[in-house]
Amino acid sequence: MTELLVNGGRHEVHGSVLTTLAEVLRGHLGLTGTKVACGEGHCGACTVLLDGAPALACITLLEAVGEREVTTIEGLRDHPLVDAFVRADAVQCGFCTPGQIVSAAALVRETPAPTREQVRHAMAGNLCRCGTYPKIEEAISTWQG
Amino acid sequence: MARLIRTEKEVEGRYTEQWIVVEEDPLDRWPEGPLEVVGRPAARVDGLQRARGEARYTADLALPGMLHAAVLRSPHAHARVRRLDFAPALEAPGVRAAVGPGDCDVLVEEAGYQGAPVAALAADTFSEAQAALARVGVEWEVLEPLLDPDEAVSRGELIEEASRYERGDVERGLAEADVVVEAEYRTATVLHNALETHQAVCEWEGDELTVYISTQWIWGVRKDVAKRLGLPPDKVRVVCEYMGGGFGAKIDPGDHTYLAAELARRTGRPVRCALTRREENLASGNRHATVQRLRAGAKADGTLTALEGEFTMAVGWDGFVSSTAGPMKMLYGCENVRTVELGAKLTTGPNDAFRAPGFVEGTFGLERLLDELAAKLELDPLELRRRNGADADPVDGRPFSAKNLAECYRRAEPHWARRGEVRARSEGPWRRGVGLASQVWYGGGGPPSYAWVRVGSDGRATVLTAMQDIGTGTRTAMAQIAAEELGLPLERLSVSLGDSSRGPYAAISAGSSTTPSMGPAVRAAAADAARQIVEIAAQRFEVEERVLSLRGGRVVSEDGKSWALEDVTGLLEDGQILGKGSRGPNPAGMRVLTFGVQVAEVAVDVETGEVRVERIAAIHDVGRVVNPLGASSQVEGGIIQGIGHTLSEQRLLDPGSGRALTVTLDAYKLPTIADVPEIVTELLDVPDGHLTSLGSKGLGEPPIIPTAAAIANAIRDATGADVRSLPITREEMLRALREARERAYAL
Ligand code: FES
Ligand code: FES
Question: Which residues from A are below 8 Å from B471, CB to CB?
Fold first, then answer.
């Protein structure tokens, strides 16, 4: 039994030593906003925040989370970035989008008005096969309205 | 009255004839340009659901009691199963059932490619299923792989008979030419990699099967599954509410669906069968590699006198031969053309449609050849293309329903004119240049397709049709079209799609056909509802129908009086107004195509061979644009995939064993945000005057078609080097630079 702090709530969860955070979020807690597209740390679809820093839930073991607070897209639903993504049309199929928004939230918390280079650097680990990249840049540069 | 007519249907360039029933009178065409809702940028109606992580994809579905399947796949490019022993696996924790060859006809004893499915089992969790898979006893007889398409052709190993095409007299055309160029071009096998992998959940209730599936064609899955399982189609329900990308590879039900259905039947439980990313990159389809041996002849003034091509496609163990010769036949008005297309059967994963299959590859070859020709003729590449435009379909002389390629070229001029300034920005080892390439593709859609529109007493409307939105924004486009016709703001529209039990038959989302197929059906359904509203209002308010129209959420009379829509529909309380509509035929005897041109700017480091794309201007004519915002996203998405194909993407095989080396997303290089250039989108937005009441064509595929050739031609402009192979690795770039230097010395 492990205690997990997710989006402000405490949960008792079971898992083996090999259970990943993504499995727990999606399978046990029903937080399916976190997507898994590769399951091996290569695409960024599963990005969540651990104490505010982006982490890949598919290769983060439940045991390794410890006391850190997990924030998923469900915890960021009212973040202004969500509207900014929709307004800019940075959502095509949307499968990568929750992960993109979580990464972007970490970026703008540190750097509210990032330069284009900073955006490209911070977001390069989040793949989007639909090619929403130009609109993601736009969303992040207009998120404050 | 219902009229039965015979009409032509086209999907991905393949034409068939079919009967359709037309019920309505044709609607008036809307005027050109932005209307109230149609033609104006709209954020996606389902954008929030997707962005907030609320949208449920097939990948997110968890049904009570659901089991998870894992598939045993061949680790060899070519092998036969000698012995298969499930016993140890069946004793593993959580395992409920196992199937092998003979139990389900997608499982094979002779594996013709690495990743071919041989056996599958279902367990309580996916990790249990995977763990049990390792305990299946299997003995392989490894067979000889066949990987080289030219070798396959010389051995007569073809997927189907060679496809030959000829018009005019190519020998005479070549004899009359002042200049002849010939070259060999190659394109690599590339992988779709939609972020949601191929997957399905199957559940039986009695003799009825529900298939939840990530698909581009709900009704195609329904038909195929019913046929293969011997069920009446109405016993198969197919659901796809949200879909994480397809790009062509998610049209058929796929092996995973049949495995899930069989395992679900055996266990009496719902079963999920989802490919892992690695399986996705082995066994879910690809864009086949091509070898193109091309020749062109032209008069000194640039008039093409002959085009000739031999195209060899590395199709794989199965699949179809994409029409790589298509652009050569269709793009230019050359009188003498001869092509042959050969589909090599290899021990590699079957190809599948991938965003403009064949035309992406064929346009790379043809449009590179045209630039090599322009150089030899010392003609401006844009001018060369202009001089060879076709006024009617060069294949069969049919008139075009609309063709505005000349206007696309005119709009390309300012981008093309940046050449001098771009070249002047070369510095040090970085050489800069500009290149262009043209685009031709289908995209007219067609019947049958149906939609219903329901208007409630609250004056809100819902579009119902069992189509799918694969991420292209069709929910939004359909809402816009219905809103326009009903005179309602977009916020008062809902769209219910994604379930074969919840709406009528809808077209495939492939071949750039969703909007042109579905849009007119939705408009017709909305018009039917609007007509009924006007009839009711006329009776209620005692005015003539002909003075009434629907605008701004109101029923408006010519004399200036108006009533809120709710005041009319509210009379009905629980009653509803139900409109229905269908897609009419395409214009008889006409060719419906899309055209465009892209202008690319690149920088090449001539010392290291690094290539950077700095800017792409995309000018396309796809008829009326329903949602300019969504359309620009489609264009950007196509171009970005095109950049991937051009510079980084390539499925690599070990040449000895035929095993793939690029099955993960760190080995297979998709473009990232850091690879994206400035993209300028210009859509002509002129309705096709002959095509449906909407005049819209599809936009999914056109933008990816000319990208590779435009980039490669820009490289020539920057460096004088002719790259002839995709992707343009540093190796290929340095080879081309060396060749260009040697050519210069020889002069
Ligand atoms: S799913 Fe975690 S990085 Fe791809
Ligand atoms: S929106 Fe489809 S993968 Fe990003």
Answer: 92-95, 130
Cβ neighbours of A25 in B, within 8 Å = none
Q: Return the closest-CA partner of residue B410 out of B379, B441, B389, B391.
A: B389
* Closest by Cα among B505, B507, B480 to B495: B480
Atom of ligand 1 at shortest distance to CA of A44? 3
Which sequence spans correspond to the domains of chain A? 2-75, 76-142
Q: How far apart are CA B81 and CA B49, in angstroms?
A: 46
Q: What is the pLDDT of residues B645-669, one digit of tens each?
A: 999 999 999 999 999 999 999 999 9
Ligand 2 neighbour A92 (Cβ under 6 A)? yes
Whether A131 sits inside 8 A of B53 (CB atoms) is no
Q: Is the bond into B399 cis (omega within 30 degrees of 0)? A: no
Of all atoms in ligand 2, which is nearest to the CA of residue A37?
A: 3
Q: Which ligand has an atom closest to residue A97 CA?
A: 2
From the candidate CATH numbers 1.10.3720.10, 1.10.150.390, 3.40.50.970, 1.10.150.120, the one assigned to the domain spanning A76-142: 1.10.150.120
Question: HEC string of B229-251?
Answer: HCCCHHHEEEECCECCCCCCCCC
The domain made up of B3-57+445-582 is a member of CATH 3.40.190.10:
no
Distance from CA of B320 to the nearest CA of A (A): 24
Ligand positioned closest to the Cα atom of A37: 1
Whether residue B47 and residue A137 make contact (CB cut-off 8 A), yes or no, is no
ipTM: 0.98
Low-confidence ranges of chain B (pLDDT < 70): 24
* Candidates A43, A121, A136; nearest CB to B195: A43
Nearest Cα residue in chain B from A133? B673
Scan for tokens 């039965």, then name that residue: B4
pLDDT beneath 50: ranges in chain A: none
Shortest CA gap A65–chain B (Å): 21
Q: Testing the interface with B: which of A73, A92, A117, A142 to mutate, by most B Cβ within 10 A?
A: A92
CA A141 to chain centre: 18
Task: Quote the pLDDT of residue B26.
Answer: 82
pLDDT for res B7: 86
**pLDDT tens column, A40-58:** 999 999 999 999 999 999 9
State the nearest Cα–Cα gap between B252 and chain A, in angstroms. Answer: 19
**Residue whose CA lies nearest to ligand 1 atom number 3:** A41
> Element (H or E) spanning A55, and its range?
strand A53-56
Q: Nearest ligand to the C-alpha of residue A21?
A: 1
Q: Which residues make beta-bridge pairs with B582?
A: B450
- Quote the ligand 2 centre to B637 CA distance (angstroms): 9
Measured in angstroms, how far is the CA atom of residue B670 from the centroid of ligand 1?
A: 14
Place of tokens 């002909």: B546
Question: What kind of architecture, by CATH, is found in domain B398-443+589-746?
Answer: 2-Layer Sandwich (3.30)
Q: Enter the CATH code of domain B61-144+193-283.
A: 3.30.365.10
Our CA-based measurement puts residue A3 at a distance from the nearest CA of chain B, in whole angstroms, of 22
pLDDT of residue B387: 98
Residue B414 to residue B385: CA distance in whole angstroms: 17
| 3-class SS letters over B156-186 | CCECCCCEEEEECCHHHHHHHCCEEEEEEEE
pLDDT in tens, B544-580: 999 999 999 999 999 999 999 999 999 999 999 999 9
Ligand 1 atom closest to A57 (CA):
2
Give backbone dihedrals phi and psi of B649, rounded to 5 degrees, phi first: -85, 140
What is the CATH code for A2-75?
3.10.20.30
> Which residue spans of chain B are classified as CATH 3.30.365.10?
3-57+445-582, 61-144+193-283, 398-443+589-746
Whether residues B636 and A132 touch (CB distance < 8 A) is answered with yes
User: Which letter does DSSP use for residue A28 in this model?
Assistant: I
